[in-house]
Specification:
With 360 residues, the protein is α+β, with helices and mostly antiparallel strands. Helix content is 14%, strand content 27%. The chain has helices at 41-50, 120-139, 203-211, 223-234, and strands at 24-26, 34-39, 65-72, 77-83, 87-93, 102-106, 145-156, 237-247, 258-262, 283-286, 294-302, 312-315, 318-321, 338-350. The strands form 3 sheets. The chain has a 6-stranded mixed beta sheet. Strands 6-11-8-14-7 form a 5-stranded antiparallel beta sheet. Helix 3 (203-211) runs antiparallel to helix 4 (223-234). The longest helix has 20 residues, at 120-139.
């Protein structure tokens, strides 16, 4: 996680928009898929160091390793509402980037055959496919995306290289011109990749963050592009930092699947890191049995405070789970293989001051 300092901001109308998909109301939450140990140690230390007013961000009893219920994101996400007329009820809706900060997408069916994912050229080809086929579905294909820079790409193989020094952080600047992409193990502790709260209202430092963390294709990130991105951000354009995660093994992922914390807040006038989460409506999710023809997008930052972002995530190790839907419970399951890449997306739309998280 990139460490920064806290910044006082005023944000309104947090998470007021809902997706256009189905909305289901019930009287009780869904049954969890299973339970897993979530290690909050790293996250809590970061919060205590940089946001001490949130020393109970995850909840008063959630420090260190905590056993959490894990829900099936393929069934949607849910939250609890309290109404004085009808009492407590549960609302469930499809998982989208707007309403919970993550969503799943299908990829071309032959995209994994015979591919060397540690080859930087293959990562560049994959990001171009994302640019053409996936991101327009997310943000619109009518010129809504002004710039999209992919950065901080790596592979999580069966056995990581012995040379990695920092989880998710590259040690040299520039493009990925090396022979092989960096190899890292699954991240076992809850974290967000980049906390930019200390970069508020400083577009130059924000864009420099990309240079320090290996741009996938340096040719598309020249000085003119950097200058234009800075000007767009300074003039109020919305930007989003995405993590794109996908399996690359032949078998569906079972060991160490990626878990995501869908965070909701009790107030409509705050955003991370201004307020502790609402424990009743913030839950851990995962997508069971993800395959190489699927990719998961989740937000690490969204300038527009109306939309969910800042998704805490980690690899899950289940204590128990719904084995009726699992493919196998054998200890001989193949280890997880996956790739990660970040996308910094600058959009045509502007964020009004009342919803602007980047404006101090």
């Amino acid at each position: 996680m990139t460490s920064t300092n806290s910044c006082e901001i005023a944000v309104h109308a947090l998470q007021t928009q809902r997706p256009t998909g189905r909305i289901i109301e019930a009287t009780a939450p869904p049954t969890p898929w299973g339970q897993a140990r979530i290690d909050y140690t790293f996250a809590q230390k970061h919060i205590e160091s940089h946001h001490p007013h949130l020393n109970r961000y995850f909840g008063k009893d959630k420090r260190g390793i905590v056993v959490e219920d894990i829900f099936n994101a393929r069934d949607g996400v849910f939250y609890v509402l309290e109404d004085k007329n009808i009492g407590v009820h549960v609302v469930a809706e499809p998982a989208t980037l707007d309403n919970c900060g993550f969503e799943l997408h299908d990829l071309a069916s032959n995209y994994n055959v015979g591919i060397d994912w540690e080859n930087p050229a293959q990562m560049r080809a994959f990001t171009e496919d994302l640019r053409r086929s996936i991101l327009p579905k997310v943000f619109g294909g009518d010129g809504s995306i002004l710039h999209c820079i992919f950065w901080n790409a790596f592979v999580r193989p069966e056995q990581p290289s012995a040379s990695h020094e920092k989880r998710g952080t590259f040690l040299n600047s520039g493009s990925i011109a090396r022979d092989k992409l960096p190899r890292l193990p699954p991240a076992a502790t809850a974290h967000i990749d980049t906390d930019i709260s200390g970069l508020m209202n400083d577009a130059d430092r924000l864009i420099n963050l990309l240079e320090r963390n290996h741009v996938v294709n340096l040719e598309e990130f020249d000085d003119c592009v950097k200058e234009e991105m800075v000007k767009l951000i300074e003039s109020g354009h919305r930007f989003v930092i995405l993590n794109i995660w996908r399996p690359i093994g032949d078998a569906p992922i079972q060991p160490d699947p990626l878990g995501l914390l869908a965070v909701r807040y009790g107030s409509s006038s705050t955003a991370f890191p201004m307020e502790a989460l609402d424990e009743k409506s913030s839950h851990w999710y995962f997508y069971p049995n993800m395959t190489w023809d699927e990719c998961l997008l989740f937000k690490q930052y969204d300038r527009d405070a109306r939309f969910s972002s800042d998704i805490w995530h980690c690899a899950l190790s289940f204590l128990n789970e719904n084995m009726e839907e699992s493919l196998s419970s054998s200890s001989s399951l193949p280890p997880r293989r996956s790739i990660d890449v970040r996308a910094f997306v600058v959009l045509k739309e502007k964020v009004i001051v009342q919803n602007d998280r980047f404006q101090c």
